[in-house]
Amino acid sequence: YACGGSDTPPPQEETETSGGTEVVAEPVPEPDPPAPSSIRVLHAAAGLSTVTLSGTAGEAQFADLAFQVPSAYEAVALETDPATVSFQVAAASGASAEATAELSSGIPATLVVYTGADDGLAVLAMPDEERPVTGQARGRFVNALVGAASLDLCLPGEGRRAPGRPIISGVAYGDFGGIPAFQGSGVVTIGAD
Q1: What is the pLDDT of residues 22-73, one digit of tens each?
Q2: Of 72, 106, 132, 153, which one has the greatest count of Cβ atoms within 10 A?
Q3: Residue pair 32/42 in contact by the 8 Å Cβ criterion
């Protein structure tokens, strides 16, 4: 057999009983716990741009999160795959938010903290995308612009006065849209509906 396989069944343990010999199968080992996920946090709460944030996700700790600067990824242990993990975030000003995110083993996620509709904090959880094909770009677009019910993400048009070419249309406030792989420069135009 290739790779050392065999058609012989694994050995079984025999025990003596008053009625004869009883065959007992080996116990099935417990499965290994799932590999951890990893989370990073992005402070995008414009209403609290001068305040740092801190938070927890599972056992991971995040401190001194500055506005528009993503944290490093922190490992988060999972009991199941996928698993729902609670996230709490607070600002020095007293604003706070709680959210849950579904995480999968080995797949990183980004939590975006933004200004909620009531001027408090809100959290958006997004699984991170696979890496793009060489020579192409891929990304996500988050609408965290207070007062903009819906936003479009466009590439510039053919000329200065030509309309832009939409990449993503109608991203609702507090949501995100994925950008499929595309080629070209990263110049984008953002317009509110």
Answers
A1: 666 778 888 888 889 889 999 999 888 899 999 998 889 999 999 999 999 9
A2: 153
A3: no
